[in-house]
């Protein structure tokens, strides 16, 4: 089987020698309105570099509206406001990216992101597009920060919704910003704040007309309220139900994505940067057997064929930024050669060079056997990766295209103050 897969890769793979070669991928994307760009780790420099160059092309040549990332909404909004010139809080992209203080901060507070953010600011200032390109975090973790953003604005305008927001925030105060404490209280003892955050989200939506769209104020309020509601659900389920909390998180990311799409209007086009485990269709992996869904599956189900284009990324060996356990300092770790018989191993053995592979009606059937596909998380131990870092995947169903970068290196985190967990 592996020999046949290797032969098929040799026949259909296209070399990736530089940025210009990405034009082939742009052509393949065609008229898709949502382009999902994955990564096999959250700490590989080349994944960020290639996604950045591809995103520039999609924004400039195909009019894509914004980039949504696997990051916190409040921190991303600071970057978005820098890009769009809504205020002058920051003098550079590096300063704006330092807003990402939550662990693992290196995912967005890294040097590889600086060029893209400065490019987006310059592009927006050029006036070459009818709407300015934006940058948004669509993840669910920023419970307390999102609540503070809501209260800060409602206090500023003395909103009738302020008391509802204060009641919601006060419900969480006893937990001292500790998600684990809240998770135990809500998930095990059923002493949570679901009623309070649901009331807040309902109130903000009911009174949406009171809040201006100027500088994205209404969007900011809605999504921060959505984060509060879904973060409560996420933390309430995480201690008892891994699959359920995963689903809450990915359902939230799609809901946040849809809010931004609605804000930009009927012509909106989105680029999404997330890990392969989020953007590659869960139905093509063993996740489906566990009852898990993900962003890739959900957006395909919500949109017609051709509207969504998913691009997976992978590497054979190199280095990566990751940590030994959750919440501790990161370091540079070796990425060993992919295990024998894995997707990355076969891609490497067909030629140790960077390449792209496109799946379409002519060749999908040639790649329809499940094969181990490497996934590296923010917590990573290379010595044990063969026991949990390979996801059985039908590659031609999981993605529409795959970018293989044979040898890769760790990205370069910005030096930050002590981070939030």
UniProtKB/TrEMBL annotation:
Gene3D superfamilies: EreA-like (biosynthetic domain), EreA-like, domain 2. Pfam families: Erythro_esteras. Signal peptide: none annotated. GO terms for biological process: response to antibiotic. InterPro entries: Emycin_Estase (IPR007815), Hydrolase/PRTase-associated (IPR052036), UCP036794_erythomycin (IPR014622). It comes from the Bacteria. This is Erythromycin esterase family protein. It comes from Peribacillus saganii.
